[in-house]
Specification:
54% of the residues lie in helices and 6% in strands. By secondary structure, the protein is mainly alpha-helical. The chain has one domain. It has a two-stranded parallel ribbon with strand order 1-2. It starts with a strand and ends with a helix. 3% of the residues are buried.
Length: 71
């Protein structure tokens, strides 16, 4: 689960500028993380760390609050 990766397609979708995306990372960094996760046979890989922490916090919320996101 990578966060935003600075690719040509992401820039195209955002009017040529993806700098406003939170936790934006380079393609090289994202590929490096994915290759390392595959080599370690990780079941999942969430990065960058800020996104990982947000997901962990979200999962601590009561199910009733989590279900609001799906609506």
């Amino acid at each position: 689960m990578p966060g935003y990766v600075d690719t040509a397609h992401l820039r195209e979708l955002n009017g040529g500028d993806a700098r406003r995306k939170p936790f934006l990372q380079t393609e090289a960094r994202a590929v490096s993380r994915m290759v390392a996760a595959i080599a370690r046979r990780e079941a999942q890989c969430i990065f960058p760390w800020q996104l990982h922490m947000l997901i962990r916090l979200f999962n601590c919320l009561p199910r009733s609050v989590q279900s609001l996101r799906k609506k």
